[in-house]
């Protein structure tokens, strides 16, 4: 990857040249990744990892290049001669390389390299592990592992509406089972946006911005300790450009909710017979074989007017749950058929189909709302 490889030389100098002289002071060997036959020692914070050059080089272009001139291929798992890395400190006969990464992230990366990536269910703990792996995979050019981590994250931050709905089903189940806000089921969208910017994974941004836009500004910028975006779960806030994009997107989202409520009246009856009283009267004789025509246009129109008034009060005036989530609003409006139109299957079906079309249209517009490009 061009961006990562362009900085490889500087990273290589950093991890070799900045090894401290007091390498034995207050350092701890990692309980799992300290192999007696390891050929290089990595230091992250105050933790030491003795691992194999061949394992690092196998999937990492960065490490492959770093060690390629150190020794003949036949001796790939032998300790690197001191002369080959003249500026590196030695520790128990192996070169000691200082990694400017957290010990936790490096341990997760090594586990993925040795045992294969075993990711979890995209909850907050899983995100902490996967995001650390992704950062290091990006930094040290482990392209295969990078792609695997991104594919895993896209399950929770998808590009398709069907996958988004599946994600939302998991959040609802979590809320029912735990009694906690469904936002706790997945990591903070602030963290996801910052990660996507850091390692350049733009495909995570539309769903992350949309998720964040569903919170009120107070919840975003001054969250309480017990809220999904609360301080305990937060990385530093968004950059200025992302805050601007979020603000523009939230405004577009609110307009979409208003448009949905206004447009609901036009979904009240099938298009072919929306204004035809004669056709509706004639349909009484055909209901046994067809339910595509409204049987009670005047009553259905009145019902729709009442529903529009109720939705306006609920979502626009009272700002009840879902008021900033047009996908949710469209879904709820489409389901009103079961309660209000049980005697008119034509209008019920028309409303349901209208809601499905609106949700698809909204989903396609999300990237442009937040100025994320095509």
TrEMBL record:
<protein>
    <recommendedName>
        <fullName>BTB domain-containing protein</fullName>
    </recommendedName>
</protein>
<dbReference type="InterPro" id="IPR011333">
    <property type="entry name" value="SKP1/BTB/POZ_sf"/>
</dbReference>
<dbReference type="InterPro" id="IPR000210">
    <property type="entry name" value="BTB/POZ_dom"/>
</dbReference>
<feature type="domain" description="BTB">
    <location>
        <begin position="38"/>
        <end position="116"/>
    </location>
</feature>
């Amino acid at each position: 990857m061009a961006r990562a490889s362009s900085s490889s030389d500087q990273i290589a100098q950093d991890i070799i040249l900045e090894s401290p002289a007091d390498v034995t002071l207050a350092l701890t060997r990692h309980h799992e990744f300290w192999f007696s036959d390891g050929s290089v020692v990595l230091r992250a914070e105050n933790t030491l990892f003795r691992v194999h050059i061949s394992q690092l080089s196998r999937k990492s272009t960065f490490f492959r290049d770093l060690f390629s001139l150190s020794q003949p291929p036949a001796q790939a798992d032998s300790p690197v001669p001191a002369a080959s890395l003249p500026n590196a400190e030695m520790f128990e006969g192996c070169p000691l390389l200082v990694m400017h990464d957290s010990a936790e992230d490096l341990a997760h990366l090594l586990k993925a390299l040795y045992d294969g990536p075993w990711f979890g269910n995209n909850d907050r703990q899983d995100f902490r592990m996967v995001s650390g792996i992704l950062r290091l995979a990006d930094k040290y050019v482990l392209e295969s592992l990078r792609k695997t981590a991104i594919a895993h994250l896209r399950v929770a931050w998808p590009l398709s509406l069907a996958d988004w709905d599946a994600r939302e089903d998991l959040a609802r189940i979590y809320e029912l089972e735990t009694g906690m806000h469904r936002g706790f089921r997945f990591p903070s969208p602030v963290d996801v946006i910052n990660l996507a910017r850091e390692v350049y994974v733009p495909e995570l941004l539309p769903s992350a911005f949309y998720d964040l836009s569903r919170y009120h500004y107070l919840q975003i910028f001054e969250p309480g300790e017990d809220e999904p975006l609360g301080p305990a779960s937060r990385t530093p806030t968004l950059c200025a450009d992302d805050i601007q994009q979020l603000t523009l997107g939230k405004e577009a989202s609110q307009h979409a909710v208003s448009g949905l409520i206004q447009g609901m009246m036009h979904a009240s009856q099938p298009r072919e017979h929306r204004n035809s009283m004669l056709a509706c009267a004639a349909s009484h004789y055909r209901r046994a074989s067809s339910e595509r025509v409204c049987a009670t246009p005047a009553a259905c129109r009145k019902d729709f007017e009442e529903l529009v008034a109720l939705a306006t009060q609920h979502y626009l005036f009272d700002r009840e749950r879902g008021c900033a989530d047009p996908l949710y609003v469209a879904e709820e409006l489409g389901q009103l058929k079961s309660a209000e139109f049980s005697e008119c299957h034509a209008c019920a079906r028309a409303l349901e189909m209208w809601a499905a079309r609106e949700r698809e249209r909204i989903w396609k517009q999300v990237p442009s709302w937040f100025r994320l490009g095509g």
